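Blinded run. Sample ID left blank on purpose so nobody reads anything into the name before looking at the predicted structure. Input follows.
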Amino acid sequence: MPIHERLPNEIFETILQLCVGFETPVRDLSTLPLVCRRWRDIIANASFLWCTISAAEGEQALRKALQMAKNSLLNINFTKNINGTDQSKFFRLVRERVGHWDSLLVQSRRSGAALAVLPTPKPPNLRTLDVIARHNLPPPKGDTVLFGGDPAVGLKNLRLTNVPIQLTSLHLTGLKALHLEGMPFLSATGAMMVISHSPTLEILHLARLKDAALLAEPSTSHPDLVSQPPIQLAFLIKLHISALPLPFLNLLLSILAVPQLRHFNVECNVDERPAARFLAVGIQHILPILRPIAAASQGYEAVLSVWGYYIICIGELTVTMTCSSIEFSMNHFQETYDWPSSHLEIKLDDLPLHLNLHDCNPEPSYLEWFTQRKNTTKLTLYSNPWFGTSLEGIIPFLSRPTSSSPSPKWLLPQMTILVTNLVFDDRKSDIVDMIEKRHSVSPMSSAGVDGPLPTRFKQIWLTYGGRYPPGPPPMDEFLSEVVRVVGGADVYWEGKKTQRR
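Blinded prediction complete.
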């Protein structure tokens, strides 16, 4: 007797739930009852498999899913799709089951179209609401009152992107996750009110709230905000703040009480301001919380991009600095790099560094600066195939000692892992040459070279960086050469380990 015939129904249903998942298309689910009679009977009663109702699959699949879901709670997913179900027909069908809505996701190009489909009044069992306008187009005048002004009692997860929605009428009090991005007309006072009325928040994400700007420091322009007591978020675990006006950002961080915080991601546009000014003012209040977050890290990552931003990741602490000038500033980066040591009491020089150059072709002096830290163990070199920079020029610098005075030195001698997509038809030999030269260096051949000699590679991760459909060209000869020169190191091509020959 086959094993699936011997399993109790409850275990069989659990296996299906774990293996099939809620995102499986209806067309695939419809084939499961064809396996055998036992499968047909189990699937007929497994209403939880059919709970995702998506407009993208067409009207026939929609009707099938609604029929099979029976009285289970539903996840409604409406995305504008030329091949999907018509908007009016889709919501006419799913509104018949509005009492069973558990989540609602609406995605559209424009905010008006996204808001037009929302029901009135609020679905009684709705716990998750995502309304996303993909383009940040000029919104209509004024906020939209959601659900006809009906309070959103029971709502636990709320995500609003580029849509003008009046939040005060929702009376949000029991939220666990809040994501507000590009919300027009949302003032600093309004944002603070929503947060303060949600003491059970576990995840908070605020991004691009331009209308939350303070005209000056809060002490002079918004005395009501300064006098506000600390906002107690005793359950907050994740805090992600991106591209907020700097005065509002500093104010927000100064009044949040987040004793359970485990993940902190902040992104700020520094322009001409010293990065230390933001880091000292904005984050000072929560430094006691950040220290244990960063202290648990076994290493850290620095991402440098030619597109005007850099990122420092230390464990679950991520600091991103952007510049409107669209150019990388090494001075800003060095200033930010020194901040963890001076304020978080972390000696970054003692931790392994993953240096990630994302379309950033730094001068050799920049690489020498990282070499002095003596802890760069992993290097990622990534160039966008369509509009990236000529990042492959870095490879020759890693193939030989520098020519700098007073004495030459090898760049990044502690590097043992290389990740790169700089594999092109005409430049593959540079990678082979670099690996071979770093592996063949010896004290006898390095007379006059200052500092440590290169460490042998342990892992090489390669992907094709050219423009191609439908896939990369044959690389067997190149990969054989790489495997030959790396010795016993592991070589990966397009994410798969290459077998030694």
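Unblinding after everyone has recorded impressions. The two ends are 44 Å apart (CA to CA).
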